Amino acid sequence: MVSHSRSHSNVASSLADYRRDRQPSFSDDDSDQRPSSKAKTIVSSFLGHEHSAFILRITKITLLILSWYTFSISLSLYNKWMFGDKRFAFHFPLFTTAGHFLIQFILSAIVVSVFPSLKWPPDTKLSTNDILLKLMPCSSATSLDIGLGNMSLQVISLAFYTMIKSSSLMFVLLFAFLFRLEIPTWNLVLVIFTISLGVILMVASEAQFVLSGFLLVLSASMFSGLRWSVTQLLLKTYPRTHNPFSTLLHLAPGMAVTLFIIALFVEDLSKFIKADLWTDYGMFKGILLLSLPGCIAFCMTISEFALIQTASVVSLSVAGIFKEALVIAFSSMIFGDSLHFMNMVGLAVTIAAIAAYNYMRLTKLRNELEPDSHLDIENMSLDDMEQELLPRPRSRSRSHSLAMASDVHLRHS
Questions:
Q1: Using CA atoms, how far apart are residues 375 and 370, in angstroms rounded to an integer?
Q2: Exposed, middle or buried: residue 114 (CB in 10 Å: 0-12, 13-18, 19+)?
Q3: pLDDT in tens, 231-287
Q4: Beta bridge partners of 312
Q5: Do 243 and 412 form a contact (C-beta atoms < 8 A)?
Q6: Measured on CA atoms in the order 305, 300, 323, 397, is the torsion positive or negative?
Q7: Could you tell me which residues come within 8 angstroms of residue 20 by beta carbon, excluding any fewer than 6 positions away?
Q8: Three-state DSSP string of 163-220
Q9: What is the 3-state composition of the chain as percent helix, strand, coil, each rounded to the nearest 5?
Q10: Which residues contact 153 (CB under 8 A, 6 or more apart)?
Q11: Biased-composition ranges for Low complexity (predicted)?
């Protein structure tokens, strides 16, 4: 056990050092080379250094959140329009989603090739054991999370999907207990119980309840919890996945293959090839129509990556919860999804449990960092926290990994 902890600490420390070495640095003499130095100088001349830095930071975070909202909400609305029975009714969500993963793999490969700083350490090799024991569990869980979720949109409303999918944190915690990423406490058990109560309230008051759709989205939520638990285990010990782009590059092929194989049994490949989409829109427009969500998902990943590096834990958590409410509001306006009082009560209960967990997590993070370090936890970005916690012993990095998972589950529809 001691040797395992030491090896993990060495891997984490070397990964942290490697990431710091790859970050661009600027000296005082070449501060003019900073991308935003001119903007800061102009604003500083009017408002002073402290106020200008604050305004520029707020502006950057606001723009990043708006871009994240735009891509994420657009993706949710697009998927519902594409797969919904009463919309476009394209009944091949698994084949389509497998194609989206392939597109994200290609775009990730392009980004990693263009920006060498995003590449993994050159001395790390990709072995068969790495593929089967580290990458494939993550790829399979991720593909089932997103694939089953898109399947459920064929028969349930986007509002109901979003409300049930918000219960993912419950499964994140359960799998975190199972994989010993988090120590069970009565407070966390209470969070799980409260989220379960919220789900019951949402389901009991759903006027157009479809059992198959509910089971699909609930299964997607379960795989979402498994997805982020195995992903955290991967990110802790595997330096080839040290940023979202290299992670997508390694996971997307397995995600596409897994979902394509399942689709061969669940969906009819011959019917997919002969679908009306190809005759109504033509081959080029049909491919473009199916490929667009993959590009949107990739752009969403970029905005999330930048937001994680910039926004504080509190602001990111609040923004994630608010996005869920926006998706429900847009689905009601665009698709006419009906919401009942108990639906909203159940959603409020679930969001309250998520907010309570985020508060407990923030308090725990504050206690894990040295009291005399004078770090402003509320205003630190998740990326900064990762730099603080990565070199630490394994016991200290567990809550951070789970913290990242709880934030990520709010960001993915």
A1: 8
A2: exposed
A3: 877 877 777 777 788 888 889 999 999 999 999 999 989 999 988 889 888 899 999
A4: 381
A5: no
A6: negative
A7: 387
A8: HHHCCHHHHHHHHHHHCCCCCCCHHHHHHHHHHHHHHHHHHHCCCCCCHHHHHHHHHH
A9: 80, 0, 20
A10: 79, 80, 83, 84, 93, 161
A11: 1-14
Which pair of structure tokens corresponds to residue 110? 């392009």
Cα(183)–Cα(398) distance, rounded to whole angstroms?
9
Q: What is the DSSP string of 321-365?
A: HHHHHHHHHHHHHHH-----HHHHHHHHHHHHHHHHHHHHHHHHH
With beta carbons less than 8 A apart as the criterion, state whether 205 and 112 touch. Answer: no
CA 53 to chain centre: 28
Spatial CB neighbours of 398, under 8 Å, sequence gap ≥ 6: 181, 182
Closest CA to 353 of 181, 178, 199: 199
Token pair recorded at residue 271: 């019917």
Tokens read off for 64: 């990043």
Residues 6+ apart with CB under 8 A from 246: 108, 112, 118, 119, 120, 240
Beta strands in 245-325 (DSSP E): none
First to last CA, the chain: 38
- What's the pLDDT tens digit per position in 170-225? 888 898 888 888 888 888 889 888 888 888 888 877 767 888 999 999 999 999 88
Q: Give the domain ranges of the chain.
A: 51-411
With a CB cutoff of 8 Å and minimum separation 6, the contacts of 302 are: none
**Amino acid identity, position 218:** L
Helix axes 49-83, 313-335, angle to 10 degrees: 40
Q: And the tokens for 166?
A: 């918000």
Whether the CA torsion 111, 112, 114, 115 is positive or negative: it is: positive
**b or e along 255-266 (b: 16 or more beta carbons within 10 Å of the residue's beta carbon)?**
bbbbbbebbeee
